[in-house]
Amino acid sequence: MTDAIIEKIATGNYSEEELRAFLEELKDMNDDDYKAIYNKLYKVLPDFPDRQMSENFSMEMEKQLDKSDSMNGAVVITGWRKWRYYAAAAVLLLVLAGGIYLYLQPDQHRVFAARNGERKSVRLPDGSQVIINSGSTLSLSEDFDVTDREVTLEGEVYFDIRSNEKKPFIIHTKASEVKVLGTAFNVRAYPSEETEVASLVRGAIQVRIKTDTGLSGEYLLKPMQKMIINKTSEVEKDKTVQVAKKTRMIPARIDSIHVNKIFDEVVETAWTKNKLVFDNETLLEAAARMQQWYGIEIRIENDSLKNLLYTGSYEGETLEKVLEAIQYSIPMLKYKMENNGLYILY
């Protein structure tokens, strides 16, 4: 079984039951077998932690599992054998599940988050792969991959979903519900922004819009299409009565995903390649993106700058370098950094 499961781990084609069985098998291995398994995993998994990392991580894992064992009356494995099992489990779960927390507390909500200035790649328990953008949170349902595959999103995530017709993958945001069987797409739904955007790269997704009275309509997107939903508009519903009634409506439109010919880049998903792309954006929008991207506060004090348009693409550049490039295109722009790290554009 060992070689077979290692091959499945290498290709990502394994089940949670197979993984658990493999971890149980590790408990009965001798030192030489354990080292052989470790070396095989090290070779087939490019992100497999080194031995020092696994040792450090296993120490914390051992503390957590000791608490769990004592609470549940489990038989405790002692000595080097115990450490070896925990270390193996730690490095496996660190790579495969994005953290031991997923398995130590399976009945809890599982939350993945990326702070401002960072981006994370995570494999979900169902085998789907996601990339989480700065300042974003993805919460899995309590029964994720058991009875459903539902998640709640605040922010922006690129999804590459493993197909499962019996359990469609559903993303809940403030303004919409996105349903998919198996495909690759991007959803941008930051609470601070006035719009939500679902962009389809391949496959098919169904988008339903949330209103005050529930879900409305079913919009099917084709590859290289995106749906833009306005979260904040209000329109008059009834002008026949003396006092016009207003209800919160969320207009939406389907548009094409934009490929910037200058950079030869799909604008909506460039961030997943660690590229910061501005495509005819106002400086106000660009400042918000840079603040999120670098995790540094940026403030525009000159109102005449806010609606100026800018286009540019950057990969691996510092905030200072990006501002210098923008200043080259917009000579009237000046900027300075305060002692507290705040950047002011004026």
From TrEMBL:
Answer whether the UniProt record assigns the keyword Ligase to this protein.
Answer: no
Q: Which UniProt keywords apply?
A: Membrane, Transmembrane, Transmembrane helix
Domain of life assignment: Bacteria
Any coiled-coil regions, as ranges: none
Ranges for domain Protein FecR C-terminal come to: 275-344
- The residues that cross the membrane are 85-104
Q: Which InterPro entries match?
A: FecR, FecR_C, Ferrdict_sens_TM
GO molecular-function terms, A-Z: sigma factor antagonist activity
Domain spans labelled FecR protein = 114-205
Protein's recorded name: FecR family protein
